[in-house]
Amino acid sequence: MGKFQSKVKRNSSKYRADKHAEESCPAQPIPQQNRAHSDAVTYISALKCDLCVSGGKDKVVVVSNWRTGTALKRFVGHDREVSKVACVFGSNRFFSASRDKTVLMWDLHCKAGSAQKFLGHHLIVTGLAVSPDGTHLLTGSRDNTLCKWDVETGQCLLKAAVSRNLVTHLCWVPGEAYVVQTSEDKTVRLWDTRGLQVAHTFPMKQHIQMHCDVSEDGSYCLTSSNGFGGQGCEATLWDLRQTKDKVCEYKGHQQSTTSCVFLARNTWDTPLVATASQDCTVKVWERDTGACLSNLFLDGCGPLSSLAVCDDTSILCATFSSGIHALRINSSKGATLQQAGTF
Which domain holds residue 331? Predict the structure, then answer.
């Protein structure tokens, strides 16, 4: 088939990582701006080179300039907390999913109200992926279903259900008609969106798969596992071209690994990936060897919920207790993570 594409308590001490693995935060003060959200930030995504979109338990979707830490625009329309946000990088459109069972499309320059609504799921929408050309949207829910939508009309084009497939995340494979999906049934599935059918199922993991990402070239998929006390808690690299077995695992987090992302390759001699965990740490790894290059503990942040790659050396980290953290990867110090700001 060719290359495949496609109530946590806020006591941060509970999520503290092993002290021997921590790296101290920089001694200089970290610039802090007004919080983009009044409650926990549940998900974050990059929209443009200097803009990000975030959703939170406060039911609001916010567009911010992550370089200055300034919230530029707030979008209100959901009745319950926002569970996921997604966008096509460089465009003005973005999407939000919610515990209220709806998905909304927004336009950066729209003054009031959502540009489109997608109604069809019966439980919280937990997966959200938009096609690279921005014409189609794929959504997944805890109701075990996936839906394919026409972005312009809001019409549901296809719907598929798999028993016990409680969707946790969706990620479209660049340049292809395939979407990677993680699930609470510990399975990673590859969907062909043309007929909305499962094209491949990877070997089942031992723990719930919480998040996924796909490399820019569409060759690899990254997934992350829940867990406790270091059991589970890993991220796993899969080869989408061979689809036989895992390529590499990244082990070191002490609590569930909530987010995993591929880092931009322009700056680094070797491909890198990053992970965030409920243990309040963000880690940077060598993609091919699994070596941990950097480990940053974000004190007092509560669980970390999401990562977004902004440019070659910048990552955003959404947290439950302290807003959004801008992190810088210092290439002159071997990919060391440093805090650059909070908003």
Answer: 7-30+202-343
Residue 213 lies inside a defined structural domain of this protein: yes
Q: Which residues contact 82 (CB under 8 A, 6 or more apart)?
A: 42, 43, 55, 56, 57, 59, 60, 61, 96, 97, 98
Nearest-angstrom CA–CA distance, 147 and 181: 13
Q: Which amino acid, 111? A: K
Cβ–Cβ under 8 Å, residues 275 and 283: yes
pLDDT tens sequence across 149-164: 999 999 999 999 999 9
Q: What is the pTM of this model?
A: 0.90
Number of structural domains in the chain: 1
Strand 272-277: give its sheet, edge to edge: 257-262, 272-277, 281-286, 292-297
Distance CA 59, CA 42 (A): 10
Distance, in Å, from the CA atom of 15 to the CA atom of 101, rounded to the nearest integer, reads 30
User: C-alpha angle 285/295/88, rounded to 5°?
Assistant: 60
The verdict on residue 156 lying in a domain is: no
